Each structure stands twice: as C-alpha cells, then as structure tokens.
C-alpha cells in the first residue's frame, strides 16, 4: 500500500518541553519526542510532517493544508484542548482520522483540564504516558490511515 | 448620501466552505458567497471590504482598522462566536453597528454552540439561512450604516 | 409558480407595540408593521395571513390550521419564546419552514430572554433589527416557501 | 358499585395525532385512541368524558368541573407536562386520583422532556407504549376510582 | 383627589379557594375575599374591578385593558407566578404600579414556588398572610395609586 | 403464535416487600406479587421466569442469559434504577424490549429517585400503582413480545 | 384582650437610613420610621419594643429575650436576610409569629438579594413599599399576635 | 529482567462483545481480544492473567489479589467507569500502575460516559481504538511494569 | 436487660486496612480493629457480629439477615457511602438504628467523598478518628440498642 | 501526663437548648449537657473550659485565647457551621485538634445544613446522637489532646 | 490640600498574623504591618486610623463612623470577604472610595475564597503581595482620597 | 544588585486605550501608560520591555522569550484573562514571578469578567485603579524581581 502520511501537531507551549514543569510533563524535549516519532515511523512505514506553534491560527491553517496530502492526524492540542473550538472545527472540516494525545493524564488533573473540546471529533484519545502517548498514538494513527486508504 | 462602507468578516474555517460538512454549512463556497454579497452590495449602493482569517489576532486587527473608514460590520465569527472575548471587545471598542450572521441555526445545534459571546455587542443576529444569512445581514447592515451616517 | 402563502404570527403583548417600552421595542405600532409586511409581500409575490393573540391556545390553533394552506410561517413568539413548549410542538407538528423573528436582540438582554424553546424547530432566527426583523424574515420565509413548493 | 366515571384529558397538539411526527407519536389518530378507550371502558364498566384542548385554561376549567362528578382523571398533558404549574395546581385542587400518561417514553427523549411538573400530584405515570399507554392508564384509573368509591 | 381605581387580578385555580388544599390556602372563598376587598376599598375611597381567570390570555387582555382606566394593579398570579413571562411583559407594558400578593408564603414552600417571574416588574410583594395579603395589598396599591395621580 | 416468554427482574431489597416501609411500598409480599403475575400470565398466554437478587452482577448475568430465550423483560430495578449503568448496558446489550416498573411514583419522591439511568434503554415506564405497576407492565410486555415475534 | 406586644428588629446598616443610598432605600430616617410605627401601634392598641444593631449576636440575644414577653416579631433583617442562619434559628427557636419586611423589593434586585434564609421561618413577607412595608407589617403582626393570644 | 506480569480486567457486559451494539463496540469477541492480547504479550515478554466479571465485588477481589504478584493492571471498567468508587479505591489500594482502556471514545459519547471515576487513580487512559485500545494499553502497561521493577 | 446485639459492617477495600494508603486510613489492620471492637463490646456487655465484603449484594443480604436478631448496626460503608442506594434502602428497610462511621474525615477530602447517601437513614455519623471512629460508634450503637430494647 | 485541657465551644442559640425545637434538638438543657461533660471529664482526667455565645466575634476571640492553654477544642458551631468562615479560619489559625459535634444528624436535614465550612479544619465530626455527640466528642478530644502532648 | 485621612480596617483573625499559617499569610505581625503603614503614610502625607476586630458588628460600626471624617478606606476583610453582606452594605452606605486588600492571592486558593462580596463596592482590589498589598493599597487609597477632596 | 528587568505585556484591544469605552477604561492612551511606566521604572532602577499584541500566539512567544532575560512579568491580559489557558500555561512554563493587572475592577463587572484563568499562576493581582494599576504593579514586580535575584 505504500507509506501512509501523518501530520503530527504540537500545540502551544510544547516547544518548552523538557524545561517546563518537568514534574508534570517529563524531561524529554520536543526534539527528542520528534526523533522518537521519526524512528518509529520508519519502522511502521509512515511519513511524518511535524508542526508546532503557539498560534491557534497557524495550527488551523496547517490542518486545512493536511486535507490535501495526509492520511491521519496526531494532535497534542496542549492548552487549546480546553477551549479552541476553531481547532475542533478545523479537524472536523478536513475529515481525516484524528488521534488526540496528551503527555499527562488530563483526567487526573485540575477540573478544567478534564474537558476536551477536541475529543468529540477524534477517533480516540491517549493520555498520561509521557512520550509514549505520542508513540502509541503513532501506532494508532498509522493503523487508521491504512484502513482509510483501503476503503 | 453616497455609498456606505461595510466590513465583512469571515471567521475561522470558513475558507473551507462548500467542502466542509456540507450537510450543515451548505455547498456554496466562500467565493460564491462573496460574489453574491458583492452583487447585492451594488444594488444597495454599498462598498464592501471582505476578510477571512483563521487567526483571531488578524480579525481583531482588521476590526480595529475598520473604525477609520467603515460604517458597519457584518461578522460570521465561526467558532470564535463561542469564546473569543477578544473579538467581542474589539467590536465593542470600535463602536460601529455590528450584524452577527451564521450559516446554520446555532440555537438548534449542540449546547455549546447556542451561546454567543459576540451577541451582546451586536445590534442583531441572523442565523440558519445559509448564504441568505449573509445577504439578509447585508441588507440590515446597509440600513444601520445609513442611519448612522444621518445622525 | 404562483404566489406563496405565509402565516405571520404575533405573540402576546405585541398588540401594544409602539406604546409598550418603546426604548426596547421601538415606536412602530403593530398596524404599521403589518402594513410594511403587506407592502413587501406584494413586491415578493406572497400572500400573508396575519394573526396576533395573547392566548397561547389561539396561536396553537392557528398554526395547526396553517398546515392546510400555508407554505411557511413567520413567528415572533414574544414572551412565549422562553417557555411555550406547546407552541414549539405545534410548529414541529405542522412541518412547515419556520422563521423566528424578534424586534430586540434577545441575546443581549436578561439571561432568561436568551433562551428560545422555539429555535430548535425553526429554520433560522432574525433578531434585533426592530421592524426590519420582520421584513428580513419575510424575505427569508418567501424563499423557503418557494424552495418547498419546488420539491 | 355501579359504573365509575373517568375524565380523560388530552393536552395540546394531541388533536394532530397520526399526522404529527409519527416516528415519535405513532400513526393512531386521536379518534382511534378515543374509540379504543371507549371500547375498553365498557369492558371495565366505566364511563368516560374525553376532552382535548390546546388551551391551558380550558383544561384547567374542565379539571375543576370534574371534581363534581368524576372518580378519577387520566391526563396526557402533552407539552404542558413540562411547565404548566397551573394544570398541576388544578389537579391537586380537585383531589381526585390522577393517572399521567404519555405516548412516548419521555425519560428517553430530550433533557427538557424528562421533567414533569405534573408527576408529583399524580398517583402514577405510564409512558412509552403509544396507544397502550392510554389503555393501561384506563385500567389503572378504573381501579383507583373503585378504591376511592369504597373508602 | 377623587376615588382611585384598582384592578384586582386573581390567577388560575383561585376560583376554588376555600375548598382547595385549605391547609395551605385557608378556608376563605374567593367571594369572601372579594367582599372583604370591597369593604376595605370603600373605607379607603377606592373603586375596584375584580377579575379571575384560569386563562393566561384572558388575564393579559384584562391587564392591557386596565391601562386605559386603572391607577394601580393588585395581582395574585397563582401558578403563573412561576412561569408566565407573558403576564410579566403585560404588566411591564401597561406601566401601572403593581402589587404582587400571595395567600401562602411562597418563600417557605417548594423550591420552584420561591421564584417569581412577576416580582421584577412589581413595586412590592406581600405573601403569607392569607386573606390579609390582599387587604394589606389593597392598602399599598391605594397609596401607590394616589401618589401616581399626584405626579 | 404460541406462548411468549418474559423475564421478570426484581432488584435489590424487593425480597423484603410487605415488611419494608409499607407506607411507601405497600403490604403485598414479593410472593404475592409473583402469584398475581403468574395468574395474569396464564390469562395472557405467557410464560414467566422470575428472579430477584440484591447482587447487581447476578441481575446482569440473568439478563444476559435471557437473550437466548426471552421475548421481553420486565424490570423493577429498585435502587439500581438510579446508578447501575451496568444494568442499563446489559439491557441495551441483549436488545429485548424492556418494560421498567416501580411500585411507588418515583417522580413524586426525593430528587435523587426521579432520575432513572435505565429509562433511556426501556420502551416505557410504569410507576406508582403498587402491585398493579407489575400487572400493567406484564400486559405491556406481552404485547411488545408478540409484536417482536411477528417481525 | 389588652395590648399586644411586638418586637421590632432593624438589622445592620438601617441606622443610616435616609442618608444611605436614598434612591434604593428612600429618604425617611430610622427615627421617622420608628415614629410612624409608634403612631400606628397606638391606633392598633399595640406596644412596641424597637431595637437596631449592626451586631448579629445582639439581634439573636434580643430575639431570645422576646420569647418571655412578646406576642409577635417584625424584622427587617437587612443584609442578614441573605446569610444569617443564626438569626433564622433564633427566630425558629422562640416560636413567635414573625413578619419579615424589606424597604426595597428584594426580588427585583441583584440575584443574591432575592434569596432569604429568614423567609422559611416567617409567617409572611412584605417588601418594596419603603416605610409602608413596616406599617403594613405592623398591621399583619398585630393581627397574628391577637390570634396567638386567643389560642 | 524476566517476564512482567499483567492483570487484564474486563468489566461488566464485556463478555457479550461482538454481539452487543457492534456499531459502538465493534465485532471482535472477548475471546478474540484475549487472543490478540496473548499474542502480543508473548512478543513483549509479558505474562497475562485475564479476568472478566459482571460483579463489582469479584473485580475488587481480583484486583486485591493482584497486589501479591502483578506488576501492572490493564482495566476496561465498562459501565463501572462512571460510578464504581469501590473499584477506584481498590486500584488505589494496591498501588500498581493502572492503564485504563475503552473500546469506544467515551469522550465523544453521552455526557454521563465522559466522566471516569477511575481515571484519577490510573497512570493514563486509551480509548476509541476498539481492540487496539487494549493492544496499545498492553504496550503501555508492559513498559510501566518494567520501569516499576527497575525502581 | 441482657446483652445487646450489634452487626458491624465493613464495606469494600477495608480488608486491606493497614496496608492501603496508610497516610489516609492509618496503620491498624482490620483484625486489629475487630479485636479492639470485641474488647470494648465485652466491657459494654454487647455481642458483635462482624462482616466485611467487597460485594454490595453480600452486604445487603447481611443487613437483611440482621433484622431478625440485631439491635443496632454499625456500618463503615467505604466507597459505597457515595453511591450505593441499595445499601441505603437495605438499612432503611430493616428499621434498626444505624451508626455510620468512617476512618477519615470524609468532609475534609475530595468533593465526591463529602456526600453520603447513607447518612439520611442513619441516626448519626462519626468520622475522622481512625480506629476510634469505630469504638465511639460502638458506644453510640450500644446506647441506641439499649434504648430500643426498652421501648 | 497530667490533665489535658479542653475548650468546649457552644455556638449560637444553644443557650435555648431544651426549650428550642425539642423534636430536633432534644430536651436536655445546656446546663445538663455541661454537667454531663464535666462528670465525664473527671473520669477522663481532663479539665474543661466551656463557653457559649451568640456572637461570632466572641467565639473567635475565645478560640484565639485557647491557643495559649488548651490541648484540644470541641465545637458545636450551631448555625455558624454553614457560613462562618471566620470561625473556620480561627480554628485553623490556632492549630489545635478540633472535634466538631452536632446534636442532630446534619446530613439528614435540609440541604443547606449538610454542608459544614468547619469540617475541613476539624480532625473529625460526630453528629446525630444528641447529648452523646458531646460525650463521644469529649472522648475523642481527650485522646487527641494526649497524643498531641506526647509529640 | 492638607493631609488626607484614611481608615484602615483589618478583619477577623488578622490579629494572629505572623503566627497563623505563615506559609500562607507570611511572618509579619499585625503590629509590623501597621508600623509599615504609618511610615509610608507620613511619606504620603496621610493620617491613618487603624482598627482590627473579629466582630463583624464592630467593623460595621467603625465604617459608619468613618463617614464623618475619612477620605478613603482600606479594608482587608479577611474571612468576611466571602459572606459579610453587612460589611458590603456598610461600605456602600458610607460612599467613600474603598481599596480591598488581601495578603494572599485569593484567586489562586480554594474555590470559596475566590469570590468576594466586597469587590463590587470597592474601587479596586490588590492581593497576593503580603505586606506589600497593604502598602500598595495605601498608595492607591491616598490618591483616591486626594481626587475626592478635589472634586 | 543592578537593574532588574521586567517584561510588560499588554493584551488584545489595549492598543485602542483612550478611545475605547473611556467610561470603563479611562482616557489615557497606551503611549501615555507606557511613558508613565518608563518614568517610574527609572525611579525604581528597572528596565522595561513593553509589548502589545492582539495575537495570543505572539504574546505566548514573547513570554517564552522572556525566560532568558527577564526577572518578572507584568501582564494585563485583557480579554485573554478569561479564556487563554495557553497564556496561563506559558506564564507557568517560564517560572517568573507574574503580576496581573487590570484597568477596571473586573470583580465588579459582568459575571464572565470576574473569573481569571491567569490568576492561579500569578503572584498577585491589582485591578480597578486605571493607569495606577500598572504603576502599583510595577512597584510589586520590581520588588519580586529583586527578591528573586537575591535567592
């Protein structure tokens, strides 16, 4: 079937990973996460495009763009998880399978972090496993992408 | 009295109209809506400036700019309807008459879409008529603009 | 296609228009609104039946009656907007396209006026433009009526 | 003990049964329901008075009237279920045993339909069985009426 | 200054007073209350028009009518206290001073009876004193009516 | 069509009927209810299996078992009405028509008893008629079972 | 029957009446209100003890004391209306009939002023009539006191 | 380091998988899921104990037992997700790393399914990927188990 | 009067006491608590039956059984405190005086632990004193049992 | 270890015990409760200081004072339980172990009485046992005081 | 313009500053805060009157008194922040500019501490800076006082 | 110690200060505020970097940047106060002391403006003093910056 193409979206403040509240978000930097993702993607025969931005509009634009080439999306919406209906609508608009990931277990944190406006437009959610949330998410996304190409 | 000048603001994800969830938003593209608006504006002797952006900040900047030249604003805030207090404050700050429009009937959709943070700073709201929401909104805006110029 | 037929429903207290809290509802009387509607309906090749009542049951009966002859309904439910589920169910029962109009912008008023039990059974809503809410509503209703006849 | 006398009250919009949203309310007309009720009432040795109105005040008046002759009341309050405290107070005022019936299972529908202001003044509630809600309700009402006469 | 004219409005189910739940509403009949009101009105040099109806629309019509002749309104809205925004809007529309009375202390009863949609458009409220709620209300209304005529 | 087969499920604490709070639940014992059910089932040409348990898991197991032989289910979930989503999911899983019954009128009791997590997966609900809730429920269940066999 | 004895309780900040927010509370001073009360009490053959304090504990002590001599209590709890459960319990403890009065119509003001923790232990409430709230309250209290002495 | 030992817990109604609401839960049977888990566990050098029960108490007992031998727990609590605080406390009591999995995306379903009482005592949550939720969960659990053994 | 008989009920997860979250629940094991209870019961001339189960149904069965022999019940419902209406109904059904105890101060913990569905059917509650909650509870229960036998 | 010293605080309205709503609070007077406390304190080798006040400020002052000499505090905050954050902060400020007691079972009464703002700063709570709530509370407080002295 | 006069009000429990929960409220005593205030007041040419009380009534009396001589008020309402509407009304009644200060950042603490009933009658609020909250508050108050004298 | 470095962040719409709703926000322009800040910063020996943007992402980027050079942050988040969790997380991520300022007293305005998502990550908040909110905030920030450098 050839390689599947996955857009990986990192939301706001994730550029500071490793240095930002490491007791919550761990000590891995975003570069290290991206390396791990790239390594696994080769194993899974997938091609990744990775973007990070602190600008909601940039993320919306990137997601729009992805509808022309991607087979699935992995997104860690960061703080946007809890209020960015624009992001949610963008994901719904492009119609690709979406895997929502979080480093921390958002359901075990402050009340306001337990609600995701993104979740209803995602296929599924993986949270709480640090870097592994991304890697498990990549496995899920690749599978969804392959199923989609088969249809 | 001469032409009245209207700023037309399209919020996030509206650039995908026609292709995005057409069962909700219809099959007209943004270009087609803009054409229809321009056609009607000629009939009504109005001049339009039309902007679309997925960036909240860009929309705020455009609205600020409008206070120097526009007589009224038509805005479909898209997803920003439900949380962008920045947009609301921008509209309140420029002091122009605002007509809020929506393609779908937001009061008949998911609970979170029924609340508009924009509404309290608008003169009125038109929703549920697809492209016609814009065209009716243009009629309303032109009338408000004319009344404003007369004062 | 011939004339389309529209039922125009004015809810409770609207008979006092012009004299009732004019700072909110404007100075136009109900007769003046009805004249304006009739004038526009001729231009749009529509035929109107206009009713006003302070009795919920009378309005329900009129709406039921309309299912035999009308092509669309324009309704300003007045105070019934906020609690008359009977009116809502009547509108749903007759299955005609419904345009909900309000003189004032109900979404910018007291909390209890922001919720419409009618909205979920209407095609769309127009509010805040005074008499023009009705006239824009008539344009919308005529278009919906024409589309319906075509089907 | 002689025949028991039962008032059967049909609330607003029930006159449209059979033609109104049949996927929810079924295809039986109100006449057919009334026939079925009359047939069963003969079998159970009961006498029925059946009223329907879209006017809350008419229903209140009828319920008041019933306190002079009826032994029990069956009521399908329709939309009034959810807000007519006047109806509730009328039922409480006359002091007869009340059986509340609904064609659809209101507890499985929209949130606002799950709350009945009538229920606290009824002996019991039967809902979800279409026409059979009425027939089961008649059985219950006749039994309550007989017990009441015995006291 | 001559007699002042007062409209006395009795809401739904009040026609059953004396026989309806006397442990809550007392044993006085509506006729007895009206007699007491008429007796006191003579003492206070006031003229009363007294209406009772179980129909919301009738009460709205009567209130509208009163704007042509009355100097004040006493209203016991009964069950309409809690949901009839139509009644509230009618009272606001006619612009007369309104005295809201209740036989029972609604603030000491079920939760839903503690909220009055009428209160915000009334000058004041008197509740809990049985027949005396009306008589005290009449004293208050006459005084308000006299002040109003003086203005 | 032959006999229909009905599973009758009694939830927790119903084994104490007759002795438990008889002012709420009546003086009939569970044995007496079961006898009455069996008598009526013969009249209606139905075969009953009756189970009672205070163990949620036992009830879930029984409901699962029923999918192999029963045509309908009558359930008085007792206290489980208000929180046992496991029971709800079991009923949804087996796909049989479900009739929910309660001895008392749960909608007229404490707030927490007014909400049923079972209701959304039931065809209908009968409550408030004591033993007759079961007998009316049996009539409803037999009818639903027959319709199901016909399909 | 002799004179009845009434305790009149003025809550916190009422010592500033006349000078405090006169647009809400009127221009009468507390001394003027007390004079008017004393004048009317003579007419009604009642004896008053009047206390004012900004100290909740002082008011509780005074109410306790009243159980030895008073026949009824009039209380304007001021700000304590909304939170002083101690005052409420004191009033309930002494078992005298309580008339709650307010100068302004608390049900037409800020949300937090609409709830009275005192109301459930009062016979009734009078609010919105300025000084007349007290005078009407005195009439009510005297009547309740006389009825109590008769028992 | 040798094999890690994982307890896999399937909650109520999961024994019906494949036949129960397949549009939500998929067509895989529990046996098929267990086979897939066992296959993957061999690849990951893990040993599984798999239990399913519709009895909350049985699951609590099994979890208690696991504290003597297991290195981690995978749990799909099914309906217990939403109310079984007993299960939550059991998981907290044994102090093993817990991976919560769900076949469907609970955050995109009915409101009551979006809240997990289990989540705050789990390391993380994986939902929405059908059978793959379990397989991804096994990967996560094995990694957590290995880290725990290393400590 | 002879010995009084007390049923002591330990809810779910209490079998792990001493090893489970000792910072919250203390270091005493259930055996040690039971020993302390037995020692005190001898001093107080009481006879205890002690049960612990993680199965709600087992506890309900035990409570039912107790109505034949016990004079009072001490219960630490553990996690069932917060949702087991079945347990609550069981306690209400047997009609014995109930003393609710908790090791920790549930009113000082997470929000969801502050609400007890058991409390409204208990005579009183003792919480926060660790093992002493039980011992104080035993004193209370013995006294209630003696009073009950005297009646 | 010598005597421990305990401050016993009785909140507002408790001076009326015995005469105040005896069906809720029992027939024992405050003097009788204090006698019983003194008797038991001798047995337990404790020294009591007992205060009662209807003034929140007096109680706060007394609690402050206690930090210089007391080893523990027993408090029945009466009505202050539900709103006196000043009392709560006073108890937190002095840092002594606090035992909260109530004569009645506050968790089985009106909704507003179920919430204690004091509880989060107390070691534990005892309620519902009348005078015995105090005596059990004294046992608990003495034990806490002894443990504190040992530290 | 001469010296401005400022009333500084310290609410309940602030007399224990320095010794009370120093991790929240810091180690400065009230005397030290007052010294710092007096030092700064000389620099700013202001005259202070400083009061502290644990009695709400005393604070209300002091605030009333201040209307005769003060130009502004600084208040740290302590626990009264969250419920003392009497204090709020006192501040509103005297009509002086009010500066609300808090040692800790109340918006970052327990939910109930985030709401201030005082805030709506204050000019502004300063919180979270320990002693500096007072000193910054003094600067603000002096400026407001000067502006007021100028008017 | 040398100069401390402070980042001053102005949120959306603050560029319109002076012209925007001056009755709420005052007549000072942003330039005037910045001048006042610069003047005071010289007096306090601080160095300022001042940024304003209507783009959330730009503010997040600036805050990230500040972690390399600033000693403290002053932020007026404008409309972002109420929803920008991204901003909140950015402030938490950089770990600098944050002073939140507002021109108006947000706690005395519309309900939605009373809640700040930024507050929990700020040291303190100053609001309601117009330009002086900034100047007092600068004093607070400089002090926090100095303390931080000392550590």
Briefly say what this structure is.
Twelve copies of one chain form a homododecamer. The first copy, chain A, has 151 residues and is of the alpha/beta class.
What does this structure look like?
Twelve copies of one chain form a homododecamer. Chain A is of the alpha/beta class and 151 residues long. In chain A, 39% of the residues lie in helices and 19% in strands. The first copy, chain A, contains five helices and five strands, in the order βααβαβαββα. Chain A has helices at residues 22-25, 30-43, 56-66, 85-94, 131-150; strands at 4-10, 46-52, 72-76, 98-102, 124-127. The interface between D and F is medium-sized, with 23 and 23 residues.
